[in-house]
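Task: complex structure prediction.
Instruction: return structure tokens for all chains below.
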Amino acid sequence: MKKILTIAACLAFGAGSAMAQETFPRNGVYDERPGLVALTNATIHTDYKTTLNNATLLIRNGKVEAVGTNVKVPAGAVVVDAKGKHIYPAFVDMFSTYGLPEVKRESRGWGAAPQMESKKEGAYNWNQAIRPETNAVELFKANSKQADELRKQGFGTVLAIHRDGIARGTAALVTLADKRENEVIVLDKAAGALSFDKGSSTQDYPASLMGSIALLRQTYLDAQWNNQNPGREQNISLKAFTDANRFPQIFEANSKLDVLRADKVGDEFRTQYIIKTNGDEYQMLNEIKATNAPLIVSVNYPDAYNVEDPYDARRVSLDAMKHWEMAPANAAMLQKAGITFAFTASDLKDKKDFLPNVRKAVKYGLPEEEALKALTVTPAKLLKAENVVGSLDAGKLANFIVTSGNLFADDNLILENWVQGDRYKITEVPSDYRGVYTLKIGNNTSKKLKIAGTPDKPELSVIGADTVKGKISFNGNLVTLSFTDSKKSNETIRLSGWLADKNLQGEGQLPDASTVKWSATFSEAMTQQDKKDAAKKAEEVELGKMIYPFRAYGQTELPKQETVLIKNATVWTNEKEGKLENTDVLIKNGKIAKVGKNLSESGAKVIDGTGKHVTPGIIDEHSHIALNGVNEGTQAVTAEVRMADVVNSDDVNIYRQLAGGVTTSQLLHGSANPVGGQSAIIKLRWGKSPQDLMVEGADGFIKFALGENVKQSNWGNTQTIRFPQSRMGVEQVYVDAFTRAKEYEQAWKNYNKLSKKQQAKTAAPRRDLELETLVEILNGKRHITCHSYVQSEINMMMKVADEMGFKINTFTHILEGYKVADKMKEHGVGGSTFSDWWAYKMEVKDAIPQNAGIMHNLGVVTAINSDDAEMARRLNQEAAKSVKYAGVSEEDALKMVTLNPAKLLHLDDRMGSLKAGKDADVVLWNEHPLSIYARPEKTFVDGIAYFDVERDAKMQQEMEQERMRLIQKMLNAKAGGARTQNPTIKKASVLHCEDVHHHEEESYLAY
Amino acid sequence: MKIHKRYISAFAAVLLSTAAFAQVPAPAAKQSKPVLLKGATLHVGNGTVVENAAVGFDNGKITYAGPQAGANSLSGYEVVDVTGQHIYPGLIQPNSSLGLNEVESVRATIDWREIGDFNPNVRSVVAYNTDSDIIPTVRANGVLMTQLTPIGGTIAGSSSVVQLDAWNWEDAIVKADEGIHLNWPAMLIPTGDKERDERLNRMKENREKTLRDLSQLLSDAAVFKAAKADKENLKLSSMAGLFDSSKKLYIHANYGKEIIESVNFAKQHGVKNMVIVGAGDALAVADFLKANNIPVIYSGVHALPSRAEEDVWQPYKTPYLLHKAGIQFALDYDLSIHGTRNLPFIAGTAAAFGLDKEQALASVTLNAAKILGIDKQAGSVEVGKDATIVVSSGDLLDMRTNNVTYAFIQGRKVNLDDKQQYLYKKFDNKYKEQKKAPAGATTSAGK
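Output:
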């Protein structure tokens, strides 16, 4: 949300300097021409909002010399009469790979041995995905085939970006003229390019989205440090990174959520990215708008799905169906919201779709003027090239298109595309031969011949005893016809001829091989009505409602905070009052207002709780829902990665877990490495943005992990390279990491102690986000949730913490906690465990279902967690198992999934019990909450009923109706000739602690 | 085993009292005298409930099951008063690797998969490890029988039903080699990505080849017996039972179209009895299943809906809806081997979401027995059947009340102890001793 930094004016285009080839020797005689052309009598759109009628465009040497209604055509100009035609500035695509080599992704295959270091040789960055030293201009080769494709769509200039890696270096602005590279390059460095995609890098790190984000952050810091401390480390990449930052920064995002993520990183480093989107940003319009980012918008609309088979049609998700309907409205919605954007053709497999799709955007509500702006001036301005391209004023490049009429009309044709004053003919205005003719073949009886359709796609019917359809095509003034004699006949009459005045005549061959002469005499022109019918019927634009989030169980309006009074329920307070019968709970302003008997509150919505139970919302200490990625397990220590960077607010498991009474979840990094990433703690506010899911003011947490996952015991025989491979090594990873962290902290302390004067003379230490996070731990500012199983490693971890001077907050999983519960109590660490899992690997062969009970009995704060999106919906039942197996009291058991995890997350002052003043995170159960027969009827978060069993039934019904409406619409679209695609599989991934890779095969399976 | 003297001196009493349980408990001896359980609520397994009931059994067979009043004439029975408790048939877990695998991540302990695509002759029962540490923990929640099911390849092998208290696999057999397991090759769906779809096409070709091979195998097997070939063919002869009803074909398939395709395929090849296992989409093809009289072993109760649009509780509700659709079904717990002890709670979940409690019970007892072809001797508490019975002080299907006080397998009183309880007692005692001992005298190291 920062203003675009104004780039120094020296970058602006120096007229005439960039595009000559004066230095090249010639073989033969010089052939320079004046290049003076005047296009006259045209309707000229000099820019997106200015139209001149009957005007002249004068160009000289590839540039606009003059434009206007009073331009005098100088002697020596080649005059092109453009009467009846329109001239527009040629389009600018600011996200193109034109002329650049294809990026080859080397697939290293599942199970390949780790590659810890970059394979790029030389004094470059440590990470292969950081390649800011790439200058597209050095790789650029003009490509006439690609240029032709783009010119046909109206483009004259494109920004060539080498789409490879996270830092992609600089991009070049080039024209689409078929000339030598030296002549077509407009700006050799027009922009810097970035993404979260590691591209062709084969190095392991980063293997996740949050790893990519962390790497980008660290690269900014490293480049700053490198710049401020010249000579400390020679690093071509970091120097280039700093250099590339001088230009407008273009960030390629793959989803609406990535747009938000990218913008956040940009803000941290005071850079407003221009963000390339994938066309779904209308789904989070408010959040996208708030980024202030100019967008580069794709017009890649999905095809309708083949939904004839009701069984297969179930595979098409509601969001895919709705996106099919709404994608063409994206641009209009962005424009209405006041968002600046440019169009790009980059995502289109077939570039021919570009202009039709832009026209579709206009049909869906985007004003023509705004569409033209997004094709011309906006990209030019964003690239600081508005003095060169994007409009037709004197001095700018003579890049323009000549069209048959209004650019946005369906039947409009681009006739010519002029690039740098060179004329590229695209198509001719087809002559209109439509009408009725009298056809005479040899001596046969006359028939009526009707030519209908559109001028460029004429349709033929021959009307005799019956009417047969045939084929007709014109080529200049030559004509070819073929048709059968009658409907039943399968023998074809073929005629060839020419246009003579308004009539057709020529020779042909009959099915019996005899040749004949024929003629078709014009009798009447096509009626206006026929012409109207021939034009495609205007598509009616009717859109379904927006839903938040944009997927199943999304709602047009989010539920609101209410004042609610639940009467006469059994209330599990988790406070010293314990479990209260026939008690009321008042919820107001998002807080619990009162718990007591015979409460009343005017205006409150009263719920009869007779026979029902009320408990605090369930808190899952160990969850991996609502994330786009879990493990950055490629290095032993990845404290720099943040789960908050990859929260996915669209995950339907948020809603499903509300239906299981869950209100708060700690989203943990996985367990692939000793020091994993930083946790995100969210409330399940279904429908809100990732930012709004975060628990406000929550303490920082981080995931540590021990044992088999960390030493990669079960990852196959190739995973034997990364340190550590044993529990011995695990200890040393910690000792080493915290030793470095202490040294790092000391270095900063020393530096900060210096006076300003001294500081100016002294090199500042390099900021290291990984070590900074570990320093937070040492200072009690960040707290550890440590994945652990066996007693030896649990003990080791506590000893390392004691030695290094920090505390472990929580051992998670902790299946052998019962063996060292006394030591845990002494250390003051809590335990968050599974109720009854065991025997799935060696380190859990001694796990017992009484574990939680023993830890609890010894005074360890004990929670039961899920680590599983399904089981999280039944955490109340998992808690009940502590009663069954270890005789824990029912109230204490319930605390294991409510108050105790709140304590472990330092949120017990706000959550975990029913007490006036605490957050109204409350569940109303139909039954005793520890019983298998219990299920939530309502789940409140902040006093908002995000789950309501009655509303749920209604939503299901509405969802089914909406699907049916869309299915019918798709069937109609298909019948109307729209392109279609088969239903495909898009499986939601359910993530667990140990997930590192996905098995690709799975995604093909039907079920 | 050498034991440290120091250790003995510290905890001798504890160790001596519990050492006997460090191993899987010894199987119970054959029933020596008739037993009468009385005072309980009897859940027969077929939908009937009898309050104040009594159940008598002798020589491993049930001799009486009904109102307590009707048992007054029985004499010579050892009476066990279980007043206020509940009597159930022993639960049956179909489609399981229990005893075929001890530690899921350790290859050396995996015996449920054989190499090769078509292994009808491979028999799971010979690999069944009666000394698995997991088995006693499963019994302790009321699961007393299982179907040992091989996994992997297209035809994984044949399964057997065993009871869970035996010295060796031979003794454990309830019904040997009762069926052959076919993993129906999954239908493949394009992802829309060109590069990936090229892979998909290769996979599709493989699928077609597998189906051709399978067709050939079934065709050859159907006539092999009649051909009286002079060379034995283990694969073909092991499949003979499929064509004369003596063996079932368990087809593992989830997608609706796979279910229809596989059943028709098997039928065309002369297979007589089929069961669909997994059956995720069974509801979508309910009419087809009903018309073809195909029973179902439904696997995914504790599962997420397969599509975001589905009812969030769809998998929980499916058993009830299958029942309503008139499909014969049993439930199995398929999330993990150690989790088999949660089988009663799978049924409980089905009951929480619409299924009548006794029907839910039937789905893990009598219906399972019928589908596995063992209902003559097991699956319900009825006279003449094996006395494979569970007594729980509360509702067996709810973890809140599930508390197995007795389990009998074929009349033998099963030892309900297990490794986990041993470890529990071991450490519980440690901490109790610590409390008794003065501060500082604990074993805590590093001080």
